[in-house]
Every structure is written in structure tokens, then in C-alpha cells.
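pinging the channel bc i need a second pair of eyes. not urgent but kinda urgent?? the chain im working w is below, pasted from the shared doc
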Amino acid sequence: MNDRSRLSRVRRRLLEELKEEVRLHIGPTPESLRRYYKDYKAEFSGRWTRSSKDELIGSVREARIVMVGDYHTLRQSQRTNLRILRELLPGERRIRLGLELVHSAHQGHLDRFLAGEASLKELLRGLRYPETWGQPWEGYGELLEFAATHGIPVHGLNRSGRGVGLRVRDRHAARLVAGLAVRYPEDLIHVVFGDLHLAAGHLPRYTVEALGRAGVKGVAPVIIFQNSETLFWKLHRRRLQHRVDVLRRGRSRFCINSTPPWVKLHSFVFWERNRDELLEALMAGGRGIVGAGGGAVEFSEQQASLIRVIADYFELRPPGMDDFTVLTLAELNRFIGTLGRLKRFDHLEPLLAVRDSLFIPERRIIFLRGPDINHAAEQGAVFLNWLCTRYAPRPDGGQDEFYRRLLRRALGFVGSLVINPRRKHWHEADHVRYLDGLSRRRVLSRRGRAQREASRWVLRHIDRWPDRGGRSAIRSVLAIDDRCLRLVSTGLGQILGYRLYHGMLQGAVARNDVAGLFSMNPGGPGEARDLYADLEQQLRMVVPLVISKSHRF
């Protein structure tokens, strides 16, 4: 079995396991939902062609109504809307945002929140959020924050009640969308609604009919689906799943493929496992998971499944793969208390400020800020590396520890790409773009100043490395503070990890060789740096499929 086939096998197995768990959670599918899903699947049976981000944005700019499919538990799904909206600003046309998550009867609560007259907790209570929506908040919160910042009006489109089924909800939303289009003919109406509702015979059709009744002819919404499993496997068979972000069918139908199907289902399964605890924390703290106070959310099962998938792909069988503890921000005091007893964590604030997640080998603790599958997979791979080597971090730092840390970051990133090959990170061009953007800003936050310094050193290290000038570069970078130094090792580690992963796919490095890196413990003077140099030389011919995070959805 070649490396691609093995990778496909472990991912398909993960997908089938998740599908089975989804079936257990949702139970028998109602006939109405089954028909909706059948219509939705039919959308992807025809001929879809390659498109691009620029082509999609161009169609959105020309539209009066755009409808973007939403997968409610997947934060990336809501963030795609943010990326589209950012491309449209500044613009000549005003944008209006229509959201399925808010009932039209609750518009007053939404308006007061956007005007700064109500807190998030008051908004959620006014919306009766657990009963009327009951999905993760974070992605929608980002959308509302963006709308408030840029003066974008937001309109609730949903309704519920006894006897209110899918079609009734679609007809209700269609009337509201058509009404907005008639009332504000110069504005762009951007609708965020569940993917299944966007099949041709559902919300889009009812909207066109409502427009016709209002005397508006010839207006067809631009439809943007997200993350179709059918299209994903079509791309996979042609080895295009890493290269193609956008597909198109006809003049007004697009599909953005930014997330593999198993990652999408993973978000649903995690939410369903912990729905009651997460909603309780959200309503109590008004900040979702990161504001939880009781530590009731269980991440261990999620973490163990990701570790098994990565280990299976690389054929790693170290003992103790189930012997770890997961802590989150909900248990931050316990986590800080644990670290405070370790000498190398005398100063905790810089570490917590710069790292989203991390693994503490002395305590076998995987610390996660939230349910993000990318960070969970990354720390799972770092945990596997530790199980294979039992490395001991060096609190005194120095060049050797810098490169050991960089290599661990690279292996962690490779592991996360095994789980989510569409994970985004900063490429070299993104560091350049970030620094160029900062030249127009006078005031930077503390994090911004640290990232500015880190991006400078990442680029300096890359620029000097080929002629071995990296020696002097790294001696200089070691003099900066630990917070920035960790950002530098993370930046360089992700770039190396990206090349390692795609080096496997392109045949520049064998999977067994990458698996061997998990068991290497370059502990002697200069060994980690030399290993990094060897990998850089070996991977120099790997062709990056993406040169900038900004090019993708």
C-alpha cells in the first residue's frame, strides 16, 4: 500500500466512525429532512468545474442576493463568510447580513446588542438561544462583531413553533430576504443559512417566487455551498483536493472546499457529546467554551481518537497512547498550578499569551484552549513524539533547544495535516504581507509587537539559511524574549512541517522517514540544527501548493 492509499484509508475510516456516531446522536431521520438531504445531494451530481476565489468574489460583487451555506457546528464555516465580507470592504454598496440563527421575532434584541445597548448575555437570553438555536456561538459571534464594527445591518430570518417545518421556515426567510431586496435595491443581501436549505428547490426558489410577487423579475441569488463531501472525493480521485478551493456550476452556483468531510463531522460529534455543558457555560459566561467555569467538557475521547489516527498512518505503536490528561481554559487555575511547580515555567504569562495549545511532558498534560481539531491533532502528534523519545525540554534554552523545539513544532504540524490537510498557516509570503501591513499602523498591541518581531526573524532566518548564514541569525534571535522566540520557532516549524507533509505526497521524502523523525531525539550539541539543515536540503525541491494563506478561503 503506497503512502497516498494509506493516508486515504485512515481518513476514510475516521470518516465512517464519525458518521456512525452522528447516526447514534441524531437517531432516525425524519422523512422531511431525508427529502431535503436528497435534494441537497443532487446539487453535486452534475458537472462542476474549477473556479477561484477571485471569480467567486467577482460574482458576489455583481449579485443583489448571495446565499452562503452554513454548517452550524463548524467555526470555519462561519469564518468563510468573514473572508467573503472582508473582500467586499470597502465598497460602494452597503451590505446587509441575514442570519438563520436569529428569529425575526427577536430582531429588537439583536438591534440593541449591535447598538451597544445590550450585553452578550442579555442578547443570548433575549434570543432564548439554547431553545431556538442551540449551536456553538463563537463563529456567529465573530460575524456579529464584524458587522457591528463595519456598520453592517443584521436581520434575523428564522422562525419556529408548533407545526413549523423546513419548508415553512424557508418560505418565511424567503419573504424576508425578498422584502430586504425590494426595500434596499442598491444593497447586497448576504444570507447565512444551513447548507441543506440552499438546494435549488428550497430557499433560493422561494426567494425568486417572493421577488416575483413583489414585481422584481430576473434576480437569481448567487449560491455558495461549503464543503460538499461528494465534491471532495471527486477532487481526491483526481489528486486536486489540495489545489482547488472553489468549484463552480453554471453562472450562479459555487462550492468552497476549505474543510475535509471528517473535520466537519468531528465538529458536530464534539458538540453533541458536550451540548448541555457547553450551552450552560455559554449562557452563564456569555463567552462560550473559553468562558466555561466548571471543567465539565470532556476532550479526552476526541484527543485519543486523533492520536490513534496519526499513529496508525505512521505505524507508530508506542506504549501509553491513552495515558494523558487534557486540560482546557475551563481548568486554567488547575493548569497554572501544575506549571507553577515546574522550574522551567517560572514566567507563565508569556507562554499562555503566545501558545494556543501545548503539551507538558513532565505531567503528560495536553492543554487546549478549545475544541479546535487542528490544535488537538498538533498536540497529539507532539505527544506521540514524546512517547517515542521521552525527550526532556531544556529550561536553559540556547541554540540546541531552539532547533529541538522547532522540529517538534514541525512534527506537530505534520500530524495536524494528516487530520486536516486544509489547515492554514503563515507561509513566507504571509510574514512579508503582515510586515507590509504594519507599516501603515502607528499603534500595535503587545501581541502585535511580538508578532512583528517574530515575523522579521522568521524571514531573516529563511533568507540567511541557504548560505549557512543562519548561524549568525540564530545567535541573534536567541537574545529576544521567550514569547517572541516561541513565535519564531512556531513560524519556522509550521513552514518546515508543511514541506514535510507535501514532500511525502510529492515523493521527496518517504512516509517511513517522517515516521522515523518521531523517534529521533537530537540531544547532542548541534544535532538538532544539523537535522534541520538536512531536512531543509532534502525538501528544497518540494513545490509549495500554496504560497500565501490569503489566497485561500
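so The first helix runs from residue 3 to 26. and The chain has 23 helices and eleven strands. — does that match what u expected or am i reading it wrong
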